[in-house]
Amino acid sequence: MLLIFTGKKRIAQNIAKKYSNQLTTKSKKYIDLMIQHVTEGEKIIKGKNIHDFGKLLHSAWIVKKKLSNNISNAKIDEIYDHVISKGATGGKLLGAGGGGFLLFYMKKNLQKLFLEQNKKFIYVPFKFSNIGTEIIYKD
Question: How confident is the model over 45-93, as pLDDT tens digits?
Fold first, then answer.
């Protein structure tokens, strides 16, 4: 997994407010698809072909963008397209949208090359934990 900061800070609640009141019956099908993505993700993580997770992230990103025009923007789309062109099989913006972090699935050997050749991106190293979210700041 590769976590990239978009360079844009935002208050997620403010972004979500812009579109949450506009969700319609049509939007419900997208929310249902997002719930299906969670179920599929659990199956992939428990299974043996973790590389399918990137495809799932891509599918989830396509669906999420359909909820509102406020979720993505030209800069986010540019970053997404660039990372995909360098070998990521998929990714999606985390949180409500409008900025923040993009999470990608990219094979380890491609990640190293990508990071060496793309120093303009703000890469955020992270690890998974069984005890919940921990923020460790290192200056």
Answer: 888 788 899 999 999 999 888 887 878 999 999 999 999 999 999 999 9
DSSP string, the chain: -EEEE-S----HHHHHHHHHTT--HHHHHHHHHHHHHHHHHHHHHHSS-TTHHHHHHHHHHHHHHTT-TTS--HHHHHHHHHHHHTT--EEEE-TTSSSSEEEEE--HHHHHHHHHH-TTSEE------TT--------
Residue 127: count of CB within 10 angstroms of its CB: 7
CATH class in words for 2-123: alpha beta
User: Could you tell me the residue ranges of all domains in the chain?
Assistant: 2-123
Q: pTM of the full predicted structure? A: 0.77
Residue 56 corresponds to which tokens in the numbers above?
A: 């799932």
Give the separation between CA 102 and CA 7, rounded to whole angstroms: 10
Q: How far apart are the first and last CA of the chain?
A: 23
